[in-house]
Design goal:
The complex is a heterodimer of chains A (201) and B (307). Helix content of chain A is 28%, strand content 30%. Chain A is an alpha/beta fold and 201 residues long. Chain B has 307 residues and is an alpha/beta fold. The longest helix of chain B is centred in the middle third of the chain and has 18 residues. Classes of the chains: A alpha/beta (201), B alpha/beta (307). The interface between A and B is large, with 54 and 49 residues.
Amino acid sequence: MSTPVIGVLALQGDVREHLIALAAADAVARPVRRPEELAEVDGLVIPGGESTTISKLAVLFGLMEPLRARVRGGMPVYGSCAGMIMLADKILDPRSGQETVGGIDMIVRRNAFGRQNESFEASVAVRGVEGEPVEGVFIRAPWVESVGARAEVLAEHGGHIVAVRQGNALATSFHPELTGDHRVHALFVDMVRAYRTPESL
Amino acid sequence: MSSTLSHTAQPTDTPATGTARVKRGMAEQLKGGVIMDVVNAEQAKIAEDAGAVAVMALERVPADIRKDGGVARMSDPNMIEEIIEAVSIPVMAKSRIGHFVEAQVLQSLGVDYIDESEVLTPADEVNHSDKFAFTTPFVCGATNLGEALRRIAEGAAMIRSKGEAGTGNVVEAVRHLRQIKNEIARLRGYDNNELYAAAKELRAPYELVKEVSELGKLPVVLFSAGGVATPADAALMRQLGAEGVFVGSGIFKSGDPAKRAAAIVKATTFFDDPKIIADASRNLGEAMVGINCDTLPETERYANRGW
């Protein structure tokens, strides 16, 4: 089977770090800024960044609907921090007009862990990631207020949900791409491989 | 690595704030974005609506600081708090160079980033603030690689060009970015023997010089600042290697700030697509008038401040 091609939504945010992490997890990684680029990837990462900015640019450049269509169609997708917000069906405290792609039946609270002075690192045990807990880097991070029946909670910190999976959609409040530990990305690359397998048979 | 499933393990660390990874990582989240100078809550909302990734709260934009003269200081805490209240994006604010008490005040207000800025009147002609002493991360200006690495050695978690703020003239920012990029490219070619002399020449710590030589980039995020007034200016800085753009006077000193702000955001994301930059550049109304940097007397050049 050929190597999966995974895009990183490159409208704004820490795109480079995700590209490096995906490549380290044996995927072909490329930035995605246009609908035609989105059509060519097997899976997509929505990076950390400013969720209001990413949302606005996605609408402005005609990416929001194609993104929703691909996620509805089952394309594997992973969002970290701002990316988690983009994958939430509902934001508790959206800026006016802030849209999301959706895909995970959850309600997120933006900047729930506080402003930058409260940003922190802590080890987080993530279901599905073997070995030591991952180093969670939380930057003005959101948390998940509640999840629906179809969403599986993968990790909590301080009593709050910080990692969730629903089908082919994965989301973390924290930033594995900043740590040099590529196990969360490897988990996602495995999801993309599993998704591609039936098609290539 | 143990083979047991980790979700049964208990986290061992207590949360750590203010780490280098958290400070530098914050700047990573701003990449590809535009940070806009604003002087009140209303402008902050316009910036946020236009897609800014952060705002810089200050009492006067650099163009007015130039016009008014006198000593430029940290902004009124009330004004900074109003802006923090008004928007959900990160809020930055400026302290004077070496004025660590202004920085302490800004940290206590809960700003997300402190800009130890040459746009304000320096408070110390020898020393910059010890930025490791803070939980709040710092961004600092640099005109060349040595200056950038000295700031990083003091704890800066993000670097920007100095440009010549408040002029609407991008020429100095171009000079600084080219200088930093050229010096990094030169280091790439050096062998280990040469790095010691390079560190001495750059007046920067050897460890950082070695790190840059290996990475081929700064160990922190590099933005452009100073003189950006148009979408094409912003795209130029990105094509020259800036990972994002600060825009000061260029937006709110122009004819139609909301439109220009949104246009600069678009051009910053699609910095390599001339058609999108062209569309973003249409009918923006008047740009800020601008100042030719070669008519600026030496004493009015902000880039000379900081050492």
